[in-house]
Amino acid sequence: MSVKNSNLSEPQTVAVLRLSAIGDVVLCASMVMHLSKCSGFKVFWITTIQTKELLGEIPAVEYIIIPKPKNLRTFFECKRILKNYTFDFLLLAQASFSAHFVSLCINSKLKIGFDSRRSKDLHRLFIEDRISQAEEHFVDAYYSFSEKLGLDTPDAPSWNGLFNSNLTNPFHQFNLPADKLLLFVNPSSSKLERNWDAYSYVSVINYAHKNGLCVVIIGGNKVNELKFNQQVTSGCENPPINLTGKIKLSELPQLIKLCDILMAPDTGAVHIATALKIPVIGLFAVANPDLTGPYRSSQFSVNRFELACEKFSKSKKFNFFGRIHDSRAMALIKVEDVTAKLDQLIRYISEEAKS
Asked: Is the pTM of this model over 0.90?
């Protein structure tokens, strides 16, 4: 079913349900902005406060902020907030019990969700229509939702105008040098299986320092993240600047905007940097970067996902949508793989500066 709206006099109301995690809301934001530019739709984004803090205001998009759904109390709070809204379309752009929990509170004439291969947590029971099945990046999957509403997908999806903030550079106190390339490293992912080992990070950071780069460690304020990032910092010959836990979520895009290169496993920082057109050295073995890596800019990433499928998946075969739940997978990425990408990027930046 494809919904056309060009002949309607009144805009149709579209609600997008995509709760935070950081990376997912950044990936989804390009499609939401695309929807908001169509005069035929009035767009609402049902999400948590962290999404708004990270992305900032989006023109022609109304946030509906709900608590993180985790128990009956929050369910009734979601129901209270959403009871006065009725939508023509709900784009259920998250296949998880938490999102399904919220969707029960939403009045919508049509609920559109993922195809069967990308469905989980009984997703099919909460929707009436689906996007088409395809092996594609998450960004393209989100755009499949807007295609269901009759919009063409742009040749080059964009995040221009995202991360609106009055902050220009609130980081003067950290004394980031202006005369060196800045390599930001976000070592910790939300799942431990995605993390590279501390010794390998230390080796790459030492290499970067010897090649004249200033290295900055970034990350959140969770105990495990603080501990791991400090372990990396302490192990370096010349300790990098460690900003772990010192940056508010609303400030994170402005900070990442200052760097020349970001290095990270599968984390939200990868997608923030990509949206800001910052080159990323992504470290991928437990997930497919063609699904969840830097969008259309994975040339500097290290991809060992196919090898990890062969070694550690039950089927021993490549699965586009698969995940490897084995702590040994990230060890398939070697230090020399990453330093080679770093050399390549330094040359690329140097050539770009000359042109």
From this structure: yes
